[in-house]
Amino acid sequence: MTLLEIFDPKARPSPIGIDLGTTNSIVARVRDGRPVVIDDCNGERLVPSVVHYDDRGNAIVGHSARRLAQGHPRETIVSVKRFMGRGANDPETRRLGPYEFVEPRGPEDAKSVRFKVRDRVVTPVEVSAEILKELRTSAERELRSVGGAVITVPAYFDDAQRQATKDAGRLAGLEVLRLLNEPTAAALAYGLDKQQNGLFAVYDLGGGTFDITVLLLDNGVFQVKSTGGDSALGGDDMDRALAERLLQEMGATRRTPEVVRLALDTARSIKHALTDAERVEIELPVQAGEASSGRPGSKLVTVTRDELNALIAPLLERTGVACRRALRDAGVQAADVDGVILVGGATRVPYVRDHVAKLFGKAPLKDIDPEEVVALGAAIQADILAGSMERADEVLLLDVLPLSLGIETMGGVAEKILPRNTTIPAGARQVFTTYADNQTGFDLHIVQGERELAADCRSLARFVLKGIPPMPAGMARLEVTFRVDADGLLGVTARELTTGVEQKVEVKPSYGLTDEEVENMLLAALDHGEEDLLKRRLVEARVEGERVAMATRKALAADADLLEPGERVAIEGALSALDAAIRGDRPGLIQARTDALDEATRAWAGRRMDRAVAKAIAGKQVEDVEAKVAAARGVDAHLAEHRGDDASRAPTETGGPSAASTGIEARRS
Amino acid sequence: MTDPFDILGVEPRFDLDLRALEQRHRDLSRALHPDRYAGAPAAERRLALGRAIETNDALRVLRDPIRRADALLQRAGIARGEEGEQKASPALLMEMMESREELSEAAKRGDPARIARLGGAMRAREQATLAAIQAAFAAAGNDPEQLKGVLAMLSELRYIRRFLDEVSAIEEELADQT
């Protein structure tokens, strides 16, 4: 089923999957039921995630940009993903690299890194958007029309990093269907290929991030049990460690951007060469003035695989810690894992493979290219979300929240509201109360992370709920609701309960760029500004209106018996009104009529959902036989084995005597 | 509808078959997960999101014996939370205090064997308490007076749980250091 063919049957929009990587990015799509990588105009599959800004202000992306990096280290942004959602003062921002940053003017400004490139200021979101645009162009060349994208993110990305990625997609003119965790995407590509049930670990060591995910595959349901990692650890760190050594060999005491770029690039080539070779010889320039003769010269340096291994051993040890924790969180042992899937270019390093084999006691699977598997999985998920895949009904991804979400309470302690590894979408409610007499405001600080103190966690948002009538301490009751959607993005609502007056404040955590800023960037990126934006709004409104109309018609055909008297007339009226609006050119009207149709179908949608639930429950009782077949294949054997643990302890639950409504209060504002 | 047993469509009892429960959750997720409504009208998408959240939350509640017991008591109309909180017996409090002291001492010395031993002993006790709670639920049926008898055991289980959480935290810290 394609939803949009009414518009232009010749250019049927096809969904795409994008792996927006630290080092390389890939776009893929499903063709004839199988995911395939889309080549760029030069026939290359991998697009280096490198953006060069030339002196005319144009952005050059990919291989050409990579070649320019050496000569223009400050004008060429490499590994921008490491900066996504990070603040100007984040230690990660200040590591070995050739960039110039804009000094933040204030705390709000410091929330996002800003690169200084020539006379421009660019944010990581804009740089990422350039990469995404390049991929979109490749996809459009092959598909003519792109109908929404699934973009992958490291499972361990926090809310700010996810939000930044989604905005980059928007800025690139993509409809982001879903943010998908990279390991889950990889498992999807593997699982559908192998049709095998069991417990899997996905070890994903990319250019800049490390993820470990433990998941159970049960007849098309990919259920993530736990995830962990380090969003600042990857192949780049191997390059950095080796580059430090090269810089010493070069006698480079003055670390100019050019020298640093050269050392990093050389390190990467050496690392790649050592995948097959035991030793590599390389000629390095010795810095002028520092060579004995006082003139620039060169020096032959040998690096062996053992030396590289010694340099990266500490990094791998860090991945080991995360793996052990993920296994503990999933309540399983390394021996329970049926297969280990390798993802990310850095897993090509032989020492990494040995390390993984030792960690899990079995050789990792490597039948799908570790650099392509994520994009392939993203393409499958995009196809499922667009409803065009045959097996869409069988496949389902159940992912988890990677890092606990909480609120700062008295004494700066972070109280966890949603613990890590909670299945998403997820929601939780907590009641807080005032601690001082006549307190009229609540100052709420939302944080993400595992540390005890809020100051050590990632700060996501601060807001104040004002206008609480003066009451003795402990009388006002503030209910804070967290909701995490299927993208892993958080929304928070707060309301005051006692006064009867419901006061609601809705907060979306910000990572440093406001909605207006993103909107303005979007405007600036379009050639004819306002005019183009209006056109774009019209197209978006039509797409959404058509989609809702199609879905409604489909539902009318399937579940007409659930309509109550009068409903059908109302729905059909709303449908033809929407059709008329779509034929016109007023985006506002199309939106209003879409909303009206929405409203007319709401109650009926609830009844249809009840029916789907009843079916799911009833269907299963008939299918018990199949469950037993699955058990024979090993999945349920696993569960049964760990049932004891499950029953006795659910370590992430907060279940003390002070569970629901403690006297913890937010600080007075 | 906020009763987790109703949401997952399972019989309200303490000794749930957790494997069947997880299976039921997966089946319901197939029907309710937002991915299933990607092309649906906005109101329907919101509705599905809300129900998927409810389903996930219900599973979290029922998987946890303490919260599962709470849910059963709530069905029977027995107040829980602050009001229903049972005071622990002085003997239990004393015993827990001693165990915790021993644990923090073992943690300070970085003695994993002793930590493991303390954890093991407490896990055995947890199993025994769980068995007792299960028996009490079975015996009480729907009689509110008898059900109240579970409260004290639940309170004990909470203390045990917190002790074990601490053991896990210490073990995690020690593991991360090595």
Quick structural overview:
The complex is a heterodimer of chains A (669) and B (178). Chain A has 669 residues and is of the alpha+beta class.
Identify the notable features of this structure and list them briefly.
heterodimer, A: 669 residues, alpha+beta, Nucleotidyltransferase, domain 5, Actin, Chain A, domain 4, Substrate Binding Domain Of DNAk, Chain A, domain 1, 4 domains, six-stranded mixed beta sheet, five-stranded mixed beta sheet, disordered N terminus, disordered C terminus, B: 178 residues, mainly alpha, Helix Hairpins, Monooxygenase, 2 domains, 0% strand, flat
The largest interface is: A-B, 68 and 57 residues
CATH architecture of the largest domain in chain B: Up-down Bundle
> Which class best fits the helix and strand makeup of chain B?
mainly alpha
Q: Do you know the CATH topology of the largest domain in chain B?
A: Monooxygenase
Counting copies of identical and different chains, the oligomeric state is heterodimer
Number of helices of chain B: 7
Using only C-alpha atoms, the radius of gyration of chain A works out to 27 Å
Instruction: Tell me the radius of gyration of chain B.
Output: 20 Å
Quantity of strands of chain B, as a count: 0
Which whole number gives the mean pLDDT of chain A? 83
Query: Helices and strands of chain A: which structural class?
Result: alpha+beta
Instruction: Tell me the total number of β-strands of chain A.
Output: 27
Count of all domains of chain B: 2
CATH class of the largest domain in chain B, named Mainly Alpha
The shape of chain A, in one word, is globular
Q: What about the largest sheet of chain A?
A: 6 strands, mixed
How many structural domains can be distinguished in the coordinates of chain A? 4
Strand % of chain A is: 15-25%
Range of strand content of chain B: under 5%
